[in-house]
Write a structure and sequence with these properties.
The structure is a homodimer.
Chain A lengths: L5 H8 L3 H9 L7 E2 L5 E2 L2 H15 L4 H12 L8 H42 L4
Antiparallel strand pairs in A: 1-2
Helix pairs in contact in A: 1-3, 3-4
The structure holds a DNA duplex.
Chain lengths: ~130, ~130
DNA sequence: TGCAAACATGACGTTAACGTCATATTATAT
DNA sequence: ATATAATATGACGTTAACGTCATGTTTGCA
């Protein structure tokens, strides 16, 4: 189904209309083209884009961060963007991501050992 | 230096007084004991606690999440907490963390390949 | 053609995690 | 003893990322 209106779009992408309009308002999502009537029309790519945004949010990126990188997923980057600047941004994101990965890994191992400690305790005190 | 007031505490921990009072107000930090005068006094442990909170924030946890787990770092968990409940919470956090790790890893590899693509492009178009 | 459902736009509300005064009391250096 | 610095408390402000009304126009179906 190509060329849909906001109702179908939001159902397919699992977001609300408010979210779509908000994303449009901050330039994260291109405003679907308006017909003479004033309605916006969207395509499959818009769906994919919303899903990608959702993924990146789960990574812990802010909408502003996402705006920095989202184009990489959906446009031919051959002539569009000021390349060196984008490269700088990407490297920064990479560094940030590595930091996060390390912190998250440490946290995971803390959790793990605490869980094991509790399990051992519960096992030892079975009667309670 | 043990037994300090909020000024030294915040300097050592690298947070503002507002942050400390906010954390106290939501029960994330135990309110330093008040003397007759009304002032609060803190210890080295408070500093460590604030630093731990900061670490966990970088992991992407909300203050509420942190409240769930912070005690594990600072109290003898042998009799204090309703153990089975805590264990459930910990397992949930572990699952969430694994999700995040996977998403973050995927994002990292996307970034990496995009960076490489840009680098190749810049190398190929050196004159620009 | 009539009318409910879908869409557009604007405005105000909400939560988290604090920031920023303002004011009053306590502590400290001279 | 007094001026200055530090602390306590309260209240209002702020940003992100939307939620929730209210109101008006458009569309789709009987």
């Amino acid at each position: 189904m190509n060329r849909m209106r906001i109702g179908d779009l939001t159902e397919r992408a699992g977001v609300t209309q408010r979210t779509v309009r908000y994303y449009e308002s901050i330039g994260l999502l291109p405003s679907g083209e308006r017909e003479g009537n004033g309605h916006h029309y969207y395509t499959e790519e818009t769906v994919a884009r919303l899903q990608k945004i959702d993924q990146l949010k789960k990574v812990g990126l802010s909408l502003e961060d996402i705006r920095d990188v989202i184009e990489l997923y959906f446009t031919d980057t051959s002539g569009v963007l000021p390349k060196r600047k984008v490269l700088g941004i990407l490297r920064q994101h990479l560094a940030d991501t590595d930091q996060k990965l390390e912190a998250l890994g440490q946290f995971r191992s803390d959790l793990q050992s605490n869980i094991e400690r509790f399990e051992r305790w519960l096992e030892a005190n079975d009667g309670d």
